[in-house]
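FIELD: query
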Amino acid sequence: MKKHAYLFLSFVFIFSGVFAQKQANEKPQGHTDQNKFRQMKDVLATPNETRTASGAPGHAYTQQQVDYVMNIRLDEDKNQIFGDEKITYHNNSKDNLEYLWIQLDQNMRAKDSKTPEANAERFNAPFNGPKSFVKANMKERFDGGFNIDYVKNEDGADLSHSINRTMMRINLPKPLASGDVFKFSIKWHYNINDINVDGGRSGLETFPDGNNNYTIAQFYPRLCVYDNVEGWQNMQFWGRSEFALEFGDFDVKITVPADHILEATGELQNSKEVLSKEHQKRLKIAETSFKNPVFIVTQEEAEAAEKQRSTKQKTWHFKANRVRDYAFASSRKYIWDAMAVNINGRSVMAISLYPKEGNPLWEEHSTRVVANTLEEYSKLTFDYPYSKAISVHSERQGMEYPMICFNYGRPKPDGTYSERVKRGMIGVITHEVGHNFFPMIVNSDERQWTWMDEGLNSFVETLAELDYDPNFITGNLPKDIVPYMGGDQINISPIMSHGDYVYQFGPNAYTKPAAGLYMLRQTIMGPELFDYAFRTYSQRWMFKHPTPADFFRTMEDASAMDLDWFWRGWFYTTDYTDIGVKSVKQYYLTDQPTETAKETARKYNMDLAEFKDRLVYYAEVKDGKMPNNVKSISDFNFLNDYLVSLPEAEKAKLKEAPKYFYEVTFEKPGGLVMPIIIDIAYEDGTIERKTFPAEIWRYNDKEVSKVFRTNKAIAGIIVDPDLETADVDTSNNSWPKKVEENKFDKFKEKVKG
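FIELD: result
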């Protein structure tokens, strides 16, 4: 008997424990703060004396300066660049430097480059034509890369150095103390790549007539950035993520065939030596022409020049101050036109160089687009500080450098072109000229944070394009990013990812940040607040090195808006927007207690009989049918007595009594919080826009309800009617459900009719 009792008690004890544990497991568990509106202190770097909590440079902020004196020679026969440079490195940091790091970007194309080996390969095509077969299977790798002839100290002695792929370390004889200067020189040469054969951001384009178009950049060994955040930014160049560079002064002499026309970063120092008197005269006229471009070299003159080939040489001398990089373009095929642009009372030159193959498209649009870009960017950021901006035409390029950029957009051989080609050409010129602002002046680290130059630039580009042509299809609006946002999550990266390993580089680094900023300006902040904050960021970080945190903090600091929810969601996650109408309940007034009222009374121990003829009850309309006992406000005597008793001043503030009552519940299947924007269509054909800030989701980011009290019956509701929030699924955006997906305009027309 005792044994059985013991077993029974043991069973009860064990069962009770298991049951208690089960109950405990079913209770809500402890958790960290996962609210969509939590602050980003866990993500952003701690502010310090070099970078303040406001997003501005701190009192101890420093950056280096690097000055270059270069002699460059273009060998047209061998398609080679020969150069020597004297470099003056100013150590403005508080640190002693044991070595300097130099970028050797051309080494990506060296025969021993690891870049091809780092790219996976598959037989994706089941067959090849002869040209593609030879290229894929038989073509020898281009013999590119820098050939370093020497690295010497200021006194001419050899300087110890070590090359690691696209980086070269200069081993200093002794540590370079804070505030000191180190001078040294490098001599080099390399083979110029054909951009249509070997690819590349710069190089040459060969024409059937035997002439070349040289668009030359990354052509010289250049210093890496040493800053307060990363120390040396010496990540290898794999070909995609671009550059981090220091500002400095450049004194550059470029020797090319005597019949070439050349433009470059900086101000030309010897125009009388390299330009004919007629060209100088035309250039003077262009400097006062603010409405239309003036031809310095006409198409007829360019066509005549390309039929000859001079055996002589000519040296063009340029100087540029406070620039972070250098590039030039040279060819005997160039047509050259220019016009002046008024930037807040200061004259800046908009310039285009293009072969006849670019016409008529280029003479119609290029320089005008350059001018428009300078004007529009200056309005939203700061006055363009340089003396000129140059657009150079090359068949397959879209690349930017200080004061000069290389752009595609070529008509057919007969001069005709499609609207798509025209739009692409206008878009790429706007984009590449715009890069003068980001990152050539607001000098972010492109190697790590591609979006900080490409995304910000694509956003301002959108506004400039719409100014040039209000019907321009930009591709950077919130609705344009929907297919990407709603795509396969395995193939999507957060914006805040290193450029060399993000999936879908274009949408990630260009379109998504641009669309997000457009949304921030138009939908979340409003143009006035956004523009002031964006201008503040741009001007704070002119000629400096900003980080993402500096941008995020400045936008909030200058606008008094908490945007952490937006940065965290849009930039740090791959969440998407999906907001819809879950339900719409209509209510009517009654003097009879509803079941909900009775339950509430029981909960609070109330006797509703005591409040007879003193309460208004809200009853839900079932199945869309209004019952017979519906009351209007005038039917409630106690309510009318109360209204009559109010002072006249208070009565004057009252709105007309509502006749219709609706409770609308919005659902949010998507992970992002966004403002709720709705159009309410009434039965009388009118439409009302209402907007609720993103903070409406702060207590429940799954669903939220709003009550609408109106004098007109609601016929329908549409969420995000103008497609402002990149909503990936519009099938739940309307009520009633019979409204077809993406048929918002027809729905509005139907209601109005």
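FIELD: remark
The two ends are 88 Å apart (CA to CA).
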